[in-house]
Amino acid sequence: SVSIAQIVCNVLFIYLLGIFTTKNNRVGLFSALMVILADHHIYMSYWSIPNGFAAVIIPIVLYLILKKKSKARIERIFIILLLLLALIFAHSITSICMSILLISMWLLSEGHNFCVNNKKTEISIILPVFYISAMFTWWSYASGHIFELARLIKWGFSRDVFITQATTDIWTEYV
Questions:
Q1: Largest CB tally within 10 Å, which of 1, 7, 20, 101?
Q2: Taking every pair of C-alpha atoms in the chain, what is the biggest distance, in angstroms?
């Protein structure tokens, strides 16, 4: 039942994002069809994935950020902040994915404003800065994911982590 709810939410919000960004029903329907046919969503229908529920939040937040014409601005901002905090608490990989999406949305908005000579900012820098600072605060003081990130960076940039005494002994035996 949870996986069906995940698939329905993703399809619904991808359809709404498709309609909102292109103003075309066919593009929205085609993007929803592509989500349904994606192997990840087929996989989600019969196997629970740890970050699957967190990935549902990303299209909802993107739709709420882009949908600015609503009259209930304070309620929309409250829902966005609540969903972003839930995303930080849910899974670290999807939270870093959301931070990359927020920064890229802001950069694209600033690039568009520069090209069009528009002084009005569509997406403010406040939301990505708040989200990234809240994410790193949670990772540093509560969950300890910052140490895992440091360890992954060390693994990625150092070959000494992979060459241990056991691997050296194996290579000497083969020689």
A1: 7
A2: 74
**21 neighbors 62 (Cβ within 8 angstroms):** no
Coil, strand, or helix at residue 122?
Answer: coil
The torsion angle over the Cα atoms of residues 29, 20, 40 and 95, rounded to 10 degrees, is -170
* Phi and psi torsions of 167, nearest 5°: -70, -35
DSSP helix/strand/coil, 43: helix
Q: Which two tokens stand for residue 170?
A: 């194996």
How far is Cα 119 from Cα 10, in angstroms, rounded to an integer?
Answer: 34
3-state secondary structure of 9: helix
Determine the 3-state secondary structure of 71 from DSSP.
coil
51 with 14: CB under 8 angstroms?
A: no
Residue type, position 155, single letter? W
- Tokens 């609503």 belong to residue: 70
Which tokens sit at 35?
Answer: 């989500």
Give the model confidence (pLDDT) of 91-138 as tens digits. 888 888 899 999 999 998 888 888 888 777 777 889 999 999 999 898
Burial class of 13 by CB neighbour count within 10 A (0 to 12, 13 to 18, 19+)? buried
Range with lowest mean pLDDT among 48-62, 86-100, 155-169: 155-169
